[in-house]
Structure formats: structure tokens, C-alpha cells
Amino acid sequence: MEAMRQSWTDERLDDFRAETARHFDEVNRRFDEVNGRFEQVNGRFEEVNRRFEQVDDRFNRLETRMENGFKEMRAEVVALRRDMDQRLDALHRMMFRFSALMITALIAALTTFATQL
To answer: Which region holds residue 55: left if phi is over 0, alpha if psi is between -120 and 50, else beta?
Structure first.
């Protein structure tokens, strides 16, 4: 056990301190590289955010166009419905007049037939 254990001299402590400082300098350099990469990633995320803003703008324009289109379609449906109601009313009036005419003709024919007897 004694052979493995060595005393810490000032020279050994200085070597240890220098070696430790060198390792920490290496770690600091690596962290600086990692920080640089994170800055690149942040730049990429900013670009992605900018693109998403463009996509949001496109969706907003599309939504507006769709809303306007649906309003136009509703207006056309209302106009068609009004037109169909007018046509059906005209058809009902024509059918009523035709029925009244047929009943009048039938009564006239029966009256004429009854007076002939």
C-alpha cells in the first residue's frame, strides 16, 4: 500500500493544477462550440418561425376567401329559393285557375245537359 501512495509535493500539486486547468480549458472550448451550435439552432428556429408566420398569413387569406365564398353561396341560395318560391306560387295560381275553370265548365256542361232533358 505504501508503494502506491506518494506524497504530494509542491511540484506535483503544480503539475496537477496545470493539468486540471488544461482539462477545464478544453471543456470550456467544447462548451463554446456547443454554445455556437445552439446559436445556429436558434437562428434556424427563427427562420422556421418566420416561415410559420407566412403560413399563418396564407391560412388567414384562405380563410377570408372561404368566408367570402360562403357568403356569396348563401346569397345565391337565398336568391334561388326566392325564385323557386315565386315559381311555385305562380304554379299554384295556375292550377287553382285551371281547377276553377274545369269546375265551371263541368257545371256548365251539367246545366246544359240537365236543361236538355
So the answer is: alpha
All cell numbers assigned to 72: 356569396
Distance (Å, rounded) from C-alpha 107 to C-alpha 115?
12
**pTM reported for the whole predicted model:** 0.46
Q: Name the band, by pLDDT with cuts 50, 70 and 90, for residue 6.
A: low
Residue 12: CB partners within 8 Å, gap ≥ 6? 6
pLDDT at residue 38 tops 90: no
What is the distance between the alpha carbons of residues 63 and 70, in angstroms, rounded to a whole number? Answer: 10
- Work out the mean pLDDT of the chain and round it to a whole number: 89
- What is the 3-state secondary structure of the chain? CCCCCCCCCHHHHHHHHHHHHHHHHHHHHHHHHHHHHHHHHHHHHHHHHHHHHHHHHHHHHHHHHHHHHHHHHHHHHHHHHHHHHHHHHHHHHHHHHHHHHHHHHHHHHHHHHHHHC
